[in-house]
Design a protein that fits this description.
Blueprint: E1 14-19, H1 23-34, E2 39-42, E3 56-57, H2 59-68, H3 71-77, E4 86-90, E5 97-102, H4 108-117, E6 123-124, H5 127-140, E7 144-146, E8 149-156, E9 161-167, E10 173-183, H6 190-195, E11 199-214, H7 218-221, E12 228-231, E13 244-250, E14 254-261, H8 272-283, E15 291-305, E16 309-310, E17 313-315, E18 321-322, H9 330-350, H10 359-389, H11 398-407, H12 413-427, H13 430-433, H14 436-440, E19 481-484, E20 487-490, E21 500-505, H15 509-522, E22 526-531, E23 537-538, H16 543-547, E24 555-558, E25 564-568, H17 575-590
Parallel strand pairs: 1-2, 1-10, 2-7, 4-12, 10-17, 21-22
Antiparallel strand pairs: 3-6, 4-5, 8-9, 9-10, 11-14, 11-15, 12-13, 13-14, 15-18, 16-17, 19-20, 19-23, 21-24, 24-25
Helix pairs in contact: 1-5, 1-9, 9-10, 10-12, 15-17
Length: 597
Amino acid sequence: MSPQSPVPSTSHDTDVLVVGSGPAGASAALLLATYGIRVRLITKYGALADTPRAHITNQRTMEVLRDLGVEERLLREATPWESMSNTTFCTSLAGEELGRVPSWGTDALRHADYVLASPCSMVDAPQTITEPILVQEAQRRGAKIRFDSEYLSHEQDGEGVTTRVLDRLTGTTYSVRSRYLIGADGARSKVAETLGLPFEGPGPVAGALGIVFEADLSRFVAHRPSVLYWMLQPGAEKEGVGLGVLRMIKPWHEWMLMWGYEVAAGPPELTEEFVRELAVKLVGTDDFEMRVKSSSPWTVNHHYATTISKGRVFCAGDAVHRHPPTNGLGSNTSIQDSYNLCWKLAHVIRGTAAPSLLDSYDAERAPIARQIVERANLSIADTGRIIQALDLTDTSDPDTLDERLAARKAPGPQGEKTRRALREAIAYKSYEFNAHGVEHNQRYSSDAVIPDGSAPEEFARDPELYAQPTTRPGAKLPHTWVTRGGERISTLDLGGHGEFSILTGIGGRPWLDAAEALSAERGLTMRGVSIGPGEEHEDPYGSWADLSEIEDGGVLLVRPDLHIAYRHAATPSSPQEAHRLLSAALAAVTGTAADLD
């Protein structure tokens, strides 16, 4: 048995039981199986997602999928980046256009920011595409998947977790004994409820209808390709996500219509006539055929857990952050929750980290849960600026709405004022559609990160709109292109795969020797990478030298999730100092410092 393999347990049915097959649960199963951990996933449903649900897949999530080796498959099946560009605001698809927001870094002004920040592109991948890829690959790598298996309850003790499960096909119940439990069972999470996690936020704040239908609408949209088309219609700002929406599922013949309803009154009856009338209203003509695939109400939430784990039970995804789809943060944050958690579970189960390492999951990801819930809900409120720009308090009166829309075309100072206000209101939606910093500027602070005493970070540009690369501890390792054998390779590809790595340069041989020695001493893999002229990896563009923020002989200790755990900027004075410093850093990060006493 390799030193990285966990010790089999005869008293546990599996090392980790995952509840839920959505983005958080499916990615957790795939990550753990990839790391060689016994994992079982259960879902109460008889199949994977049959509706599109989450879809925007940002660069950071694509980096996770790249690390897992499934990036290329998703790229083949998803809608490509360039087709996501023109978020359009209009009265209907066939009606007047109010303006566009070049989105997701597709315009010339922002595109460089995106390609400099990551080796990955964004894609639009509905959950009907993403879930099967994750679950199938998890199963191929050894994860056990059970459908029609409903979580009922759990009890935990010092040795593990006993979970009661209902087999929905036979009606029988049984127990699963695991070392750890992950609750990734969505916004109505029974695991979070049983665990008694504390939540903040008002909870349900609006209702929305989701109607998926097939219709060839290419004549309205192919010239302005986008994922989202927002409709200013009478009553559109009431509840829902701020306006009426047609969301592209597959270009340009499959769509999701979104429209709000009052939660207190309950959803309307979704009759064939009602759905058709709503679709005609948003498309702007009845000259199209449609086939409805599904229709259902859902709730816009503003709710996040302030604690996301207790003992041996961890919650991830919508179970702990419940919010509207604005900003496209849901599935992305869910997958990134699992990426943060699963390497820690793997190292603890293998015995190369102390159980205290798992405390850092709550410390690092609970603040992110709050951040993205607040941001997504704020983006709905920001849509109200468009209504205000037209000098309206609401859109309930169609005649008044038409009058104000006409005013934006009037000559003279008042018309110019309205046009300027509308341009500014629509441009402000970049905080939803180009929030690059929200996606990349996550900084972790926990016992799994060792501060280096540097001054607090200052952002040169708006931290929500712009990513700022840095190697300060707690930040994600910056991407840039270096070369190996003359071929380009991203710095992100030099680490990950569930293991620690170090990055150094010329003069950093003591760090490399220390990493090799510590790998043997501690029974784990710590990959050593040296970047510089004549080294295995070279920096022909000079971009790594600009980004590294250390001397050539300094070192970065990079965690398996590609976040910086430790930074020592200077060349070590001796091989002994390098070994001592790196050993102490690794021990502190993994919670095994007591082993050095």
